[in-house]
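Methods, example record. To illustrate the input and output format used throughout this study, we show the complete record for LPS export ABC transporter permease LptG. The sequence lines were provided to the predictor; the line carrying structure tokens was produced by it.
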Amino acid sequence: MIFDFFPSTRLTIYLGKMFAVRIAAVLAMLVLVLMMLDLLAETGDILAAPGNGQAQLVEYASLRIPQLVARFLPYSVLLATIITLAGLNQNSEVTAMKAAGLSAHQILAPLLLVAAFVAVASFAFNERIVTRATATLTAWQSVDYAPVPPGREQRTNVYFNDGNDVLMARMLSGSGAASVLSGVTFYERDDDGMITRQIEAPRARYAEPGWRLEDATGFVVSTAQDASLGTVVVAPGVTLGQIALRRVDPEAENIGELGRSIEALESSGRRTGELTAKWWHKISGPLSALLMPLLGAVAGFGLARSGHVFARAVIGMALGFAYFVVDNAALAMGSFGGYPPLLAAWAPFVLFALVGETVLVRTEE
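The corresponding predicted structure is encoded as:
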């Protein structure tokens, strides 16, 4: 009788609708305020690029809003939980439901159901919209909000080793033999790792082998002299295979693309612990919405006339924000190998699920 976990159909709809409306309201408020503050900080940089105007500001907002929604949706679920349960408690509705024979878990069941839908929607939203918006915005910011060079794929701040030499570029666009590097800098280094010559060029194309720099200029360290080099081919050891193993941005790739990137990096012998943790977090992150009603539930129980409703709301908020702090700390530990990737992504979720359940049971008693 799994459906006995839920109260009556009417009460389930009443609580679920109330909770969903508050989630949407809190999320809209947070995104609106944060988007205004973000525009105040970025408008000068956007308009500084020649030709940019109101259309580019709107485009920036359209790319930034999905990131804000993805980041603050779990916070919205937490705050909506506290607002919903504190209001129900203050109006003695929780007392009436418990007097009717409902347990704390049954009262929370509609909220958990809505949170589960939010978690699924958050995962789909992150995979289909946020990753694309992040990739586009990162590429745009890498050229200081100037027009982005055409190309199906763009990657920013990439670098490749050719023995002691290093080839760097602000942007990589295209794929395979059609790959184009923009904002290129090539460093020639001696056996001691000291730079002997620096070559800069606005773009480079694959020369099979090597990379053909166009309109290049060189600086010789020993003589401190600049020279115009025109077209020059460098880095013959940087192959298309290395280009495929470019620096991976886990925020700009969906879970399938990131999985393939991890496999490619592992086959080349590179460390993938940080990326594997981010891969798992693409699942555990959206599921944090399911955890928020449990952590914020302390705000809804206890007698309203005791005067502790506000204190309980603060405790629920503190538990929720503590989860996000621990979650970020665990990911940071996983980035440099302090935690295994699976533990870094899932340990905070499991820990605070147990903490929330313990607090709920103790509160009900």
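Annotations derived from this record:
The mean pLDDT is 83.
The beta strands are 154-162, 165-173, 180-189, 195-206, 211-220, 225-234.
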